[in-house]
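Researcher: Let's continue the batch. This sequence belongs to Glycoside hydrolase family 105 protein, and it's 398 residues. Same format as the previous ones, please.
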Amino acid sequence: MLCDLTLILVTLASVVLARPQSYAVWAADSGIARGQGNGLDTRGRAIVSYEHGEFQWGLRQLYELTGNQTYFHYIVEGVDNIVFDNGTVHGSYTVTDFVLDPLRTGPTFLYLYEETGKSKYKLAADIFRGQLNAHPRTAQGQFWHKLKYPNQGWLDGVYMGEIFYAQYTSRFQPDNTTAWADITSQFQLMFENTIQNATAPNNTGLLYHGYDFSHKQVWASPDRGHSPEVWDRALGWFSMALVDILEVISTTNPGHNTILDILRTLAPRIRDAADPATGAWWLVITQPGRAKNYFESSGTAMFVYALLKAVRLGYVVDNDGSIVAAARKAYAYMTENWVVSNSDGTMNWLNTVIDPQVGSLDTTGDFDYYVSQPTNLNDLKGLAAFVLASLEYERLQN
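Model: Same format as before. Here are the structure tokens for Glycoside hydrolase family 105 protein:
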């Protein structure tokens, strides 16, 4: 009897500790177990957070793939923590702050409206859409990243604002040609103002973190006002925005080809910027191998997601297989170096550089600035990106 009981306990323990075969499921379940991405901050207060929106996008895909209601219920819980029954968005969100970051939760509002029909989610989405009507812009028409950063466009902001803008337009204003042209312009202006030119030092042909159209910031270049370095996560946000927007904007819309051309320009350059030995990407891509630089996990995961999705959906033709091979190599490095198994069956995620300090271009924006910021254990920006990268990798495997 004792031997039988011991066997049962050992068996139960192995079930508890056994991790899912899917890294996407393992990462998502670990985040849920820690209460991450549920519309609350670490003190249990409501917060409208872009990284929660990023995580919810991964959970939505997992729900649609697996049918596991846990993911859907967690999405609902997260949004209900920041949206009152009358549709008011709370959790420190204020329209007149004019910040693009909170709008990343907007796609979840639209999704829940479609799934449940509850008007509060539509009303919440309307509030976000109303912000864009009054959001300040540069003279060229680029949304400022934040009101407190006048005339600054950041790569991050395109992921935060334009996916929601496009999804809202597709659902409620599909014939609004002005809106579609505006959405396309946001991508085009960002690309043109931040692309490294042939004469740039440490030229990768990729995109600087952001630009100041007024040229007033200490870091603003004389030509276009761009910042001095290519930061991996900023480029990662923009790369994910490219592949996600192309699923929303119709192929008959002229903006589709404009955005597609940007993706096709950047994808092989992103591939080529990976470290040849490891396959990962440096925190500061323009300074590979420099002392204090390191391989950063959130940007690497974002690139794997964007590259694999671009090939899977036929946006980028990978004739020689080098883009998929690069993503495979990077993914292997991620799982070997940044995933740590815990005794409770969850996983930890390593090497994601923190925000908000490193996300801001309100200081020097130079190499020393980026590498001075610490990394964060289980940072949701990186964990959510790993969920997304794993979803694409597992689709590739299957």
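Researcher: Any comment?
Model: Residues 5-17 have pLDDT under 50 and may be disordered.
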